[in-house]
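Troubleshooting log. The previous structure file for this entry was overwritten by mistake, so regenerating from the original sequence record. Sequence copied from the archived sheet and checked twice against the printout by T.R.
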Amino acid sequence: MNIETVSTKPIAGQKPGTSGLRKKTAAFLEPGYLENYIAAIIEGIGGVEGATMVIGGDGRFGNRQAIKTLVRMLAAAGAKHLIIGQNGLLSTPAASCVIRKRQATGGFIFSASHNPGGEHGDFGLKYNLANGGPAPENVTSAIYKATQTLSSYKIADLDEIDLSKVATVEHDGLVIEVIDPVTDYAALMEELFDFDAISGLFASGFRLAYDAMHAATGPYAKAILEGRLGAAVGTVRNGEPLPDFGGLHPDPNPVHAKALFDLMAAPEAPDMGAASDGDGDRNLVLGPGLPVSPSDSIAVLAANAHLAPGYKRGLAGVARSMPTSRALDRVAEELGISLYETPTGWKFFGNLLDAGKITMCGEESAGAGSDHVREKDGLWAVLLWLNILAVRRQSIPEIVREHWARFGRNYYTRHDYEAIETERAETLMSELTARLGSLKGETAGSLTIEGADEFAYHDPIDGSLAEHQGLRILFEGGGRAVFRLSGTGTEGATLRVYLERFEPAGGDHTQEPQQALAEIITAAGEVAGIEKHTGRTEPDVIT
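Regenerated output below.
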């Protein structure tokens, strides 16, 4: 094959966030932008000579063309086997599944996750390791370093690649295999869950509304829920992946999945509502009249996981990100298993999973998963809920309320202030950081501050240290507020404020979370000076 060496120079701002590089689509369309970042990944991981790589994405605008560029560059760099999802589609958990099953060297996933798509939306690319998980900080640091010194890249002249057909072709020793994106993942789900029991649940008249948000999970949900499990045709809504997600914002929260929330609040609501995000790694679960918060969901799943065949032996341990509510901690304590608290970012769970320290993990940002892959997995969470419902034969509200009666309820919410001018957001965080040591004993709103710190994580497996992972304010009486700047946006800064209060077993578990947390919301806003620094009186999104 003919290989061209193209001269280039570093492009500023190509620093990976918590899950790869995400920018506006227009940025990735700039000449050389994508090529530079791919070349930096190749250099940062030590080359791809002789490698087997898995490639896919969430189907957003630019996905197919980006894959074709990647293939040409991997060919030029000496890769030997490329496994690509048909039509360029692989959900993030399915990509992890294929990497692990095919024992690939790694994988490239084109996605900006839950961010909007289309020509004027967002785009992204991340690299996953041979274990199927996101590249850890030492690898992303090497990639970023390479972006700053790049002077050229290589690209091969290959025939047009047909991504529409499942087939295997060879180009001068390079094997390009286009696979059905659903097959391997569906087989794994059938190993973990009792499909006969779930089929029986649907046969009994159980109704599910699953919103795929015109994103990656649609084909998976149709094949598994409607195909293998016998859910009624039409159970999967917005099931066709579209480059702009049909104009939807594929984030399963009360704002962007409002139609599903309204349906589940109506008198004629089905038995369960569910959704996944752009690349299929997040989940939303709702019962009739009762949305299940992601923090409660992972706690309920952990407490009931033994009801599914794949987890019948119990859990080795569990983990949650630091901002996630402490509901999971109470389950771990009663089960007598270890609980690990990590920074935000699924990559921090990888070492714990690989070492067998944990079986299940979750984040408040609608992410849950287990040791079956090394990514969070939206459809997996829905299937585990369905398996639990099939065995217990109770409604979602009944199961959740019984959980609160047993473990107590962690009232919890997250307030997002989006697209803040970066300098203003960083000033808020730096000023609050400087005051942490003197906050104890101060009053904020009607509450007294019991303590404050900045979270740092010592990885118990490799000994690495991750610092500056969020600010924690503890209030007398057990309340908590956490502040951090998100690494998943593409413009400005997003301030996330996490608010929590525990109500023990036997207490009042019937309050609306915003009301139950009203004092903590006021105190958090005052101690951080949110209105002063951002000019905002209300968050953009409440979850």
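The radius of gyration is 23 Å. Archived copy saved in two places this time.
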